[in-house]
């Protein structure tokens, strides 16, 4: 059957609506019935009045009876009377004994009172002789159904709301439970678990949601195969390129003794080294993007790490100055010295590449209220405002007149961004007023430092 979910919901709503009307009708009728009778206490009061009047009547004490009836009338603010009835058939007719036994001049105190009539009924308590009746217009305070109008509104409005809420909850759970499982499964897929399967968790469902689960399982399996193939391809590519680069380096080492080709060989070696660095950075970038590894495992001194990176950069770029401003101690937790060191190295190397010979690159470490700030400022030409975010994209390179002197491939800053963000930090670029580009790296302070601040 097509549209199984539609027919399920349709049947549930129809049956629920019918049940709602039946339950509401039964409750209203039942409640009205229960509220239509005089309370037992008031019934007994009326019977007591009648018994006392009957006692005076049987004793023939009409004066006391008259006083009693007047007192009851005053106390109850109503009409009261004692009446004799003499049913005399005429024209040769007779009365049925059962009719004569049931005959009253008013309503019995045990009868139901109509809640929709404005006038109060006359109540009748028959004396033992069967011909004398104690009649009283039902006092207003004894009339049943005082709360019936409010009860009627409550049952006609809030009872349907309550029952429809229950039906809505059933529908919601029937639909949302598999959707929550789908959400959980999608989260697991996003975290890299492609073995998750949703259809077995739905039991014997065979509606549209079950079809969606089957489609999701097929998608997860397909994506898992693609990711696995990509990993194998990346590993194979890495192995093959590293092997080729190693052979080229070995061949260069064997031919460097030939003085005639020394300049060309130096250029080849430089390009090979750049290619090796590009391959390693690209693989690291792909690893960070695809695997989402847990890197926040180390505790270290940020000052020592920056000082070590700067010393290596000074050796690699002897024609540039590096002005270092760092505190004596800057502890960080939930970090990775290898990953963070690589990120700072890439940013610093980029600054040194774009600073002319004899120029100065500034490296500062500051402590803010909740984070560390690493400021690396070069003396290069800067970057147009529209490209300040683009420089962190893989393989993005600005065209410059001295492009031939820059050895990068546009991987360093994008890799640094992924590395810093994987450690819970941020990285962004801004132009400084004089000349050059400033890249800011932020890292969260340890929790103890934040509390102290």
Automatic annotation (TrEMBL):
Assigned keywords, A-Z: ATP-binding, Cell membrane, Kinase, Membrane, Nucleotide-binding, Phosphoprotein, Transferase, Transmembrane, Transmembrane helix
**What broad taxonomic lineage does this protein's source fall under?**
Bacteria, Pseudomonadati, Pseudomonadota, Gammaproteobacteria, Thiotrichales
UniProt protein name: histidine kinase
Tell me the InterPro entries matching this sequence: 2C_sensor_his_kinase, HAMP_dom, HATPase_C_sf, HATPase_dom, His_kinase_dom, HisK_dim/P_dom, HisK_dim/P_sf, HK_sensor
Q: What is its EC number?
A: 2.7.13.3
Kindly list the GO CC terms recorded for this protein: plasma membrane
Q: Does the keyword Plastid apply?
A: no
Catalyzed chemical reaction(s): ATP + protein L-histidine = ADP + protein N-phospho-L-histidine
């Amino acid at each position: 059957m097509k549209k199984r979910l539609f027919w399920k919901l349709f049947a549930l709503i129809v049956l629920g609506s019918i049940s709602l009307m039946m339950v509401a009708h039964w409750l209203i009728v039942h409640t009205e019935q229960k509220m239509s009778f005089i309370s037992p206490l008031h019934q007994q009061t009326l019977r007591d009045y009648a018994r006392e009047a009957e006692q005076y009547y049987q004793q023939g004490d009409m004066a006391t009876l008259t006083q009693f009836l007047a007192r009851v009338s005053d106390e109850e603010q109503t009409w009261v009377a004692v009446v004799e009835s003499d049913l005399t058939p005429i024209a040769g007719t007779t009365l049925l004994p059962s009719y004569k036994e049931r005959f009253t001049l008013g309503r019995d105190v045990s009868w139901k009172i109509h809640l929709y009539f404005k006038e109060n009924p006359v109540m009748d308590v028959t004396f033992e002789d069967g011909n004398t009746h104690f009649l009283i217009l039902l006092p207003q305070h004894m009339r049943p159904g005082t709360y019936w109008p409010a009860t009627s509104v409550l049952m006609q409005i809030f009872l349907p709301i309550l029952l429809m809420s229950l039906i809505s909850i059933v529908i919601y759970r029937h639909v949302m439970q598999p959707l929550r499982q789908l959400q959980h499964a999608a989260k697991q897929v996003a975290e890299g678990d492609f073995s998750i399967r949703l259809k077995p968790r739905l039991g014997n469902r065979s509606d549209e949601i079950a079809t969606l689960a089957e489609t999701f399982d097929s998608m997860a399996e397909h994506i898992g195969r693609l990711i696995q193939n990509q990993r194998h391809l990346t590993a194979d590519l890495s192995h093959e390129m590293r092997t080729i680069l190693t052979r080229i380096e070995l061949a260069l080492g064997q031919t460097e003794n030939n003085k005639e080709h020394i300049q060309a060989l130096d250029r080849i070696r430089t390009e090979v080294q750049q290619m090796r660095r590009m391959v390693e950075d690209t693989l690291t970038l792909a690893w960070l993007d695809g695997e989402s590894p847990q890197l926040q495992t180390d505790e270290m001194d940020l000052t020592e790490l920056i000082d070590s990176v700067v010393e290596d950069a000074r050796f690699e770029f002897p024609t540039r100055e590096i002005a270092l401003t760092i505190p004596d101690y800057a502890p960080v937790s939930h970090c990775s010295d290898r990953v963070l060191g690589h990120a700072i190295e890439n940013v610093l190397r980029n600054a040194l590449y774009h600073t002319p010979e004899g120029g100065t690159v500034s490296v500062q470490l500051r402590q803010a209220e909740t984070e560390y700030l690493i400021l690396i400022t070069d003396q290069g030409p800067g970057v147009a405002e529209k490209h300040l975010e683009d420089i962190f994209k893989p393989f993005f390179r600005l065209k410059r007149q001295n492009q031939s002197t820059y050895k990068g491939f546009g991987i360093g800053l994008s890799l640094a961004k992924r590395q810093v963000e994987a450690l819970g930090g941020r990285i962004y670029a801004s132009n400084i007023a004089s000349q050059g580009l400033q890249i800011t790296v932020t890292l969260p302070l340890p929790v103890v430092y934040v509390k102290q601040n």
